[in-house]
Write a structure and sequence with these properties.
Elements (H helix, E strand, L loop, with lengths): L4 H6 L3 H9 L5 H9 L6 H11 L5 H9 L13 H9 L8 H18 L12 H11 L4 H24 L1
Amino acid sequence: MTLTGLARLNEADAREARALLLTCAAVPRWAEEIVQRRPYADVETALVAARAAAEPWSEEEVDAALARHPRIGERPQGADADAAHSRREQAAVDGTDPEVARRLREGNAAYEARFGHVFLVRAAGRSAAEILAALEERLTHDPATERRIAAEQLREIAVLRLEKELA
């Protein structure tokens, strides 16, 4: 029997539940904390626990989570859950528009040169224009401010992914 929704988190063995959570964010301590707090009465309680476990993530945890994210505007390859999440989240980014593609390539390169990691933004629900505006604005930040914002975006993405998994 395949578990779905909240039962997928509550009733799966610890290994399977951890694997599910790691597709939302590659942060083992976060995943373990959520697994240990099971069972959850409802999805919202699970999401509250996920938010709490992510406050804060260490620098190493942020780096690990960032390393699993593709660049905005590049289509993730593969059939794994990480790639599926990224494809769904970036659906509004039109890779067929050469101007958008160029600006994203250039912006991603400038961002990585400045901050040393991929530009990360919660892309779900945002248009390509909104994402480009966020990228250009965030290039003006100092490294400490940008690191804090990137960590916030990671947490938002992780919780949104978990919400999709539990729906």
